[in-house]
Fold this protein.
Amino acid sequence: MHVTIWNEYVHERSDEAVRKVYPDGIHAVLAAAVGEQLGAEVTVRTATLDQPEHGLGQAVLDETDVLLWWGHAAHDEVDDEVVARVQQRVWQGMGLLVLHSGHGSKIFQRLMGTGCMLRWREAGERERLWIVDPSHEIVDGLDAAYFDLPQAEMYGEFFDIPQPDELVLISWFEGGEVFRSGCTFRRGKGKIFYFRPGHETYPIYYDPNIRKILGNAIRWARPSGSPYQIDAQHCP
Ligand code: ZN
């Protein structure tokens, strides 16, 4: 299985507080997490905004089974042609994990068809992630009813997404808000998982529960069968 991790890689180079948590970039920590969870099952590659075609040329995408997307400060700088190419690959069956502030990315908004906006507050609050679909393979191996992150950025409802196909996790925050933190969608032949945790100034991608969910979600989102070809067929 080929996994590509895309990170805009902006904050880690411009903000000391972020660099402290992710000195080699969020993509490097995500790559390590995926390697740790899936081992020999997976070949991991990373791609960043500053690379030609943002590191997401057709050949890379054609080879990618599951794409992880982390962006925040530079959504608008992502080329529309690349976004269209990613969308096409999702329709053909490539899995897509959209992480945290990726809710505001062009690719997520385009695939959802909604604004994908939400409430937020950066106050280092405790987050409790409740598992609301314990039979789902994305939460395999998480045996408690919930787990906590000691410090997180708050995201609250209303989260402007279509009704998810499945709701796997709901977050509660110290300030009282709740949020649909783990949602699945299907578009064409592709499976999409939106996973909320991951603000750049907290060490969330080092958390063992978060890493387990990422590994499970990649397995869940991997394509089955041959790519679905979208034919340009019209009524005569
Ligand atoms: Zn954030």
